Amino acid sequence: MVMALIQESFFLPPLDFSSSQTWKSCRCPACSCWITSFFPWFGLDIGGTLVKLVYFEPKDITAEEEEEEVENLKSIRKYLTSNVAYGSTGIRDVHLELKDLTLCGRKGNLHFIRFPTHDMPAFIQMGSEKHFSSLHTTLCATGGGAYKFEQDFLTMGDLELCKLDELDCLVKGVLYIDSVGFNGHSECYYFENPTDPERCQKLPFNLENPYPLLLVNIGSGVSILAAYSKDNYKRVTGTSLGGGTFFGLCCLLTGCSTFEEALEMASHGDSTKVDKLVRDIYGGDYERFGLPGWAVASSFGNMMSKEKRESVSKEDLARATLITITNNIGSIARMCALNENINRVVFVGNFLRINTISMRLLAYALDYWSKGQLKALFLEHEGYFGAVGALLGLLDSA
Amino acid sequence: MYWPGGSLTKLAYYSTVQHKVARVRSFDHSGKDIDNEPLYEISVQEEITARLHFIKFENTYIETCLDFIKDHLVNTETKVIKATGGGAYKFKDLIEKKLGLKVDKEDVMTCLIKGCNFVLRNIPHEVFAYQKDSDTEFRFQTNHPNIFPYLLVNIGSGVSIVKVESEDKFEWIGGSSIGGGTFWGLGALLTKTKKFDELLQLASKGQHTNVDMLVKDVYGGAYQTLGLSGNLIASSFGKSTTADKEFSKEDMAKSLLHMISNDIGQLACLHAKLHNLDKIYFGGFFIRGHPVTMRTITYSINFFSKGEVQALFLRHEGYLGAIGAFLKGAEQDNPNQYSWGENYAGSSGLMSTSPDVYPMQRTRSGTFDMLEMDRLERPLVNLPLLKDPSTYIPDTVDLTDDAMARKYWLTCFEEALDGVAKRAAASQPDSVDAQERAEKFRQKYWNKLQTLRQQPFAYGTLTVRSLLDTREHCLNEFNFPDPYSKVKQKENGIALKCFQSVIESLDSLGWEERQFALVKGLLAGNVFDWGAKAVSDVLESEPQFGFEEAKSKLQGKGRSLDLDLDGPPHKCALIFADNSGIDIILGVFPFVRELLSRGTEVILACNSGPALNDVTYSESLIVTERIAAMDPVIHSALRDEKLLLVQTGSSSPCLDLSRLDQGLAVLVRERQTDLVVIEGMGRAIHTNYYAVLRCESLKLAVIKNSWLADRLGGKIFSVIFKYEVPCK
């Protein structure tokens, strides 16, 4: 458990109000809570499966500030930045850390941490036990869990959450991270020659003029947004066939217990044993409709036969599940792009984490079925944009 | 002709059916004592008509099926059989060997779409929307005169989305690999249940909320304040992301069903939006007669389109491929150049969704199921005078909707059945097996009525018309082409003898009195209806019951009539006649004569084939000829083509103004018809009571049914006289 460890390392003395630290306070326009931007600066995105936490670690603390920094604040900083794993399920994605960022006049590093949503109660419990509320900072949160756990934060942790809109946070987060770049590299990338496995390669993409843009956020479920300008964006649609479906079906079909395990299995499987392809039905291409023989005609279609059910491996099933979900997201995204008349589609969300198979397939599918008209784009910080947006919400309003 | 798909084989074949028809032929009366001779000769002849048969059965019966085809291929020139679907590959050798025919494999989608166009064009009430939670699960749609463009979503093992723009132009605009095969294959893996139907059964018992992550699982209780529906699925199978919990088969199957249906619905809506279409027809084995999937697909389409797109289903969806393959093979005698009519006697009808009759449904639709279409001799078209053909609904009361009316009419037809069977047998005294056939007819129609009690939607919207038509089809099936032929012959003879005296008495009246008497005569004539039990009882018991007696039966005498016979004469009147005998001869003809005298041309439309004691076109020719011989007005009108006799194209006691003989339609247009007179209960009350025309119309009938009279707030033998002038 992530929180067990945090609890051991936290020691929170009563807040010292004589502190000379400057801070501002204002009403949050969204939920009219009081927003104060004391350190620590957090942004929280509580999804259906994962909690994403971004933490800004100030690196420009003066000696005077260091002196005055309350003990529990210091210990939070030390704890978060000196560990890469918290308990058994909390993980800091070190490779995503953004260094030497200037945020609201402060210089520091941005850290990216995630843990399962079902550990949320322990997280709140910890905050309560260690008087997190005495730090007098506001906790900005987005995602459905901001609503679900709002009352728990209040009653158990004496913390009033500032709930921020998911779409606002997501769009804001994407634009911000893309603008600051990834430690001197491009945040956004694409796959060149996606239809040619030999020549396919990941290349940076300049998202300087991002609009119009279709943003496909693949978490447990999928949300699709169309952004026309900084302030003009809307949710187009969504689908319940998302990362949760892949993982959930894999658990049922293969008995695996982690997303990583499921992806690992998928990487060793062969989905064509599970799926019925066009060529399995027509012996080759289906020319009347211009369908290539390799296209999947029926996901899991071969599993209608008992013999074939008995001959497939767990890896094959995991692979087929991954391909099914990914292709479906690609095809819904493509239809939305056509309906919205947008040709750049950015895929984000934690489903894509360490999931090159899906990213390449999305790139391929969008390119192939649109005859090169649509481009699939990806961002390095996959699932963290909501949390980044929440952090920005905290700083913007103050 | 042949469409093996999945585990069912569907077979379409064309046959010529020999059946008996009643013919009438005028005697040569020269030099004979016409008073003691019957008016004309009735003969029963063999006629050959074309019929399309569609049969569906399980693949295990393939050999039996091929034997069946072989028997029916005798004496044909057929060298090639058209086959489509997966089984076309599987059974190719067997078919070629058994039948000695070459198997021509036809493209699946082309066949499907050809078949779809055919049923959309030829079968009334082919299309329905599915509404599980309303009284009537099946909401049948009026056939739109223009069926294109439409979207066809075929959910087989995968999903194909096809945009159909015209008879020959269609385009695959998209598809999805998540389809019926995914439900079946993935479902079999998850639940260890092998059969598709069993998976659907499991799904109908499950709770998907145990497996799916819902919006309220993510948002807690707060979703309401955000205007979200907490029951929406945020992530399908989102709760099964754990290795240490067991999930029930039912719950997983249900979750899978929702996942797949929602996904298909969403994609279909996205395509519909892109192509600006608002109707989607769904087909394929995933849908075929399964209320569970029709329900989830309908829900999904409503949800994703916000009600702007309608999910529609087809009664004969399972036959589309076979019909299409057949049409491909019959291109030299293109069936699309004809009009076709569903034969209710030979077709099994749509199966029920009610759990009570579920086993029966399975046995019936699973093993043997059929559809028969009769080729009509002449093409049928809309009456050009219909105000809006796309919204015209012939039938006045939808019995699928109105449970009380349904109960009444079904009972009414049941009670009348013995009498009808008896009359049928009596109409062929010289036939040795008439009794036996009449009994078979009785049994068949009785069974149809019982089916309709259970499944009112079996043949589309249930109406008095469909009940009457089904009875006629069943009578024909057992070679009772015209049970009333002798009754009609006798009544025509008697009425003709009274014609001159009726005319004389009318001519003696003043203008105003005469108009009133003419209309009264029209109505009195309409009392003579063997189709109405109240009347047939009187007629059976009082053989002397005549025109004057009928006039005295009429209720509501002395009402002022609004028909503007005072104004300028009409250019041309179209009259749909009802019964033989007194009705046509003493009621309609004096009225026709008056119109002709005013300078109005008259088109007199009678049924092409017999139904009850309705006057047929061929009978009307003889009757008119005899009247012309007595009456100079009629005589000169016939000679100068001011009086024209046409056939309706129908053999129904009711009238569907959207399916009329093309010749009639042409004439109506040529003569600039500006008055339509529709006579009789079947034509003016059971149907067309609410029909809106572009010209003046007069609907008149005598209510010869006390229940209906009650419903309309009158007494039996009340008069309906509905004169309508189109709003300018």
Automatic annotation (TrEMBL), chain A:
Subcellular location, record wording: Cytoplasm
EC number: 2.7.1.33
Pfam family membership, one: Fumble
Cited SUPFAM superfamilies: Actin-like ATPase domain
GO cellular component, one term: nucleus
GO molecular function: ATP binding; pantothenate kinase activity
Catalytic reactions of this protein: (R)-pantothenate + ATP = (R)-4'-phosphopantothenate + ADP + H(+)
A biological process term (GO) from this entry: coenzyme A biosynthetic process
Keywords: ATP-binding, Coenzyme A biosynthesis, Cytoplasm, Kinase, Nucleotide-binding, Phosphoprotein, Transferase
Pathway: Cofactor biosynthesis; coenzyme A biosynthesis; CoA from (R)-pantothenate: step 1/5
Main localization category: cytoplasm
Domain of life: Eukaryota
Segments crossing the lipid bilayer: none
Family: Belongs to the type II pantothenate kinase family.
Subunit structure, as described in the record: Homodimer.
Protein name: pantothenate kinase
Species for this entry: Zosterops lateralis melanops
TrEMBL record, chain B:
Domain Damage-control phosphatase ARMT1-like metal-binding residues, every copy: 413-714
Entry-linked InterPro entries: ARMT-1-like_metal-bd_sf, ARMT1-like_metal-bd, At2g17340_3_helix_bundle, ATPase_NBD, PanK_long, Type_II_PanK
Cofactor: Mn(2+); Ni(2+)
Record keywords, A-Z: Acetylation, ATP-binding, Coenzyme A biosynthesis, Cytoplasm, Hydrolase, Manganese, Metal-binding, Nickel, Nitration, Nucleotide-binding, Phosphoprotein
Secretion signal, residue range per the UniProt entry: none
Cellular-component GO terms for this entry: cytosol; nucleus
Molecular function GO labels: ATP binding; hydrolase activity; metal ion binding; pantothenate kinase activity
Subcellular location: Cytoplasm
Main location: cytoplasm
Organism domain of life: Eukaryota
Reaction it catalyzes: (R)-4'-phospho-S-sulfopantetheine + H2O = (R)-S-sulfopantetheine + phosphate; (R)-4'-phosphopantetheine sulfonate + H2O = (R)-pantetheine sulfonate + phosphate; (R)-4'-phosphopantetheine + H2O = (R)-pantetheine + phosphate
GO biological process, one term: coenzyme A biosynthetic process
Function comment: Phosphatase which shows a preference for 4'-phosphopantetheine and its oxidatively damaged forms (sulfonate or S-sulfonate), providing strong indirect evidence that the phosphatase activity pre-empts damage in the coenzyme A (CoA) pathway. Hydrolyzing excess 4'-phosphopantetheine could constitute a directed overflow mechanism to prevent its oxidation to the S-sulfonate, sulfonate, or other forms. Hydrolyzing 4'-phosphopantetheine sulfonate or S-sulfonate would forestall their conversion to inactive forms of CoA and acyl carrier protein.
Assigned protein family: Belongs to the type II pantothenate kinase family. In the N-terminal section; belongs to the type II pantothenate kinase family.
PANTHER family: 4'-PHOSPHOPANTETHEINE PHOSPHATASE, PANTOTHENATE KINASE
Subunit relationships: Homodimer. Interacts with PKM.
Protein's UniProt name: 4'-phosphopantetheine phosphatase
Organism, as annotated: Zosterops lateralis melanops
Lineage: Eukaryota, Metazoa, Chordata, Craniata, Vertebrata
